[in-house]
Write a structure and sequence with these properties.
This protein has 369 residues and is α/β, with parallel strands linked by helices. It contains seven helices and 19 strands. The longest helix has 13 residues.
Length: 369
């Protein structure tokens, strides 16, 4: 599902992209240069020790802050929306019967198997792991390639004496993004997870939430800001670069979301009383834009979303966006540009590069107000 045309009363960034100047918006418009040394390979020494770049949509100007300054941008009566998904150890490393190395990245269990042993997955090497092949992960876990799936994935079956989920927890590894370029370790099991993570299901962290500590959340609540927890299980498709020449030709993989009646009720009350809705991360933004009604009210429910947001797009659910710095040509950068304006966002990224901000999953944060 791609971005829909705006209707009266909706909220659009003052975008100065080629699309809003009468030209054609291209994926190349979302490119920027990043020195490799600014890619954060490790988290900050403390979660809230990150920096915070604040981009004011009205002026288009960035300003430099510490992440612990975040509460002062929020007002009593506002809502802060958190994605409480939990990353599971989705990476299974093993060997084929020939002894050659192989890897399985579990994406999500398939509903037709109530036992939880059948999954959709990505495999490596893809050309060698065809249906019928097996990968030995441990003495008590073998993965059998059962079938191919649309988009180049595999349907796999976990074989072992114990509950499949227990086997995954026992032998799985943290699925760090490839640009971190190292294996996950014990530190990642804690830090590549938000402090409010609850429901297992993501293969990648909602990284804007990694900066929060329980103390910082307490400070935010003490200001009269209400917290609303929603769930979107993040898949690998969200972080892949857009390969199509035109964004409108790209399709996102579907991701599972849940918005509880409690969360929807909180957001509707905040909106009715004139408060603002701040979202932590592009995942929260996509979820709320999926469930918001035409009148601006939020509906509870669960389902799958493939909503792809890029400029120009009118936001009906989001008043403020907290996010990390994203890869060039990614759907995440496109969403942020739809909210903050393409040229202001790219100018803010250039400011962050000059200021030696840390980028990507373990990097610093950006607040668009």
């Amino acid at each position: 599902m791609t971005a829909e045309p705006a209707t009266a009363g909706e909220h659009e960034a003052a975008s100065d992209s080629p699309a809003t100047r009468g030209g054609t918006l291209r994926t190349a418009d979302f490119d920027y240069d990043l020195p490799e040394e600014l890619i954060a390979a490790r988290p900050a020494h403390r979660r809230d020790a990150s920096r915070l770049l604040v981009l004011d949509r009205d002026t288009g100007l960035p300003s430099d802050h510490d992440f612990t300054d975040l509460p002062r941008f929020l007002s009593p009566g506002d809502a802060l929306v958190l994605n409480d998904t939990r990353v599971f150890p989705a990476r299974l490393v093993g060997r084929k019967p020939t002894g050659a190395a192989a890897e399985i990245l579990l994406l999500h269990p398939l509903p037709e198997d109530p036992a939880g042993a059948t999954w959709e997955a990505l495999v490596r090497p893809g050309g060698k792991l065809k249906p019928g092949r097996t990968v030995d992960v441990a003495a008590d876990l073998r993965v059998r390639i059962d079938d191919s799936t649309p988009g180049g994935g595999r349907r796999v079956i976990l074989e072992g004496p114990d509950d499949p989920w227990e086997l995954i927890q026992r032998h799985g590894r943290v699925p760090l993004p490839p640009y971190i370029n190292r294996d996950g370790d014990d530190q990642d099991r804690e830090r590549y997870q938000t402090v409010y993570a609850r429901w297992w299901g993501s293969v990648a962290a909602p990284t804007a939430g990694l900066h929060f500590t329980r103390e910082l959340l307490r400070r935010i609540r003490s200001r009269g800001v209400r917290l609303a927890r929603i769930t979107l299980h993040v898949g690998v498709g969200t972080f892949r670069p857009v390969d199509a020449e035109l964004p409108e030709e790209h399709r996102l993989h579907q991701e599972r979301y849940t918005v509880s009646p409690e969360a929807a009720g909180t957001l509707n009350e905040v909106r009715t009383l004139g408060g603002r809705v701040w979202v932590v991360g592009t995942t929260s933004a996509r979820t709320l834009e999926t469930v918001v009604e035409g009148d601006g009210r939020f509906r509870a429910g669960d389902g799958w979303t493939d909503l792809f947001i890029y400029p120009p797009y009118r936001f009906r659910a989001v008043d403020g966006l907290l996010t990390n710095f994203h890869l060039p040509r990614s759907s995440l950068l496109m969403l942020v540009s739809a909210f903050g304006g393409l040229e202001p966002v790219l100018a803010a990224y250039a400011h962050a590069v000059r200021g030696r901000y840390r980028f990507y999953s373990y990097g610093d944060a950006m607040l668009v107000i």
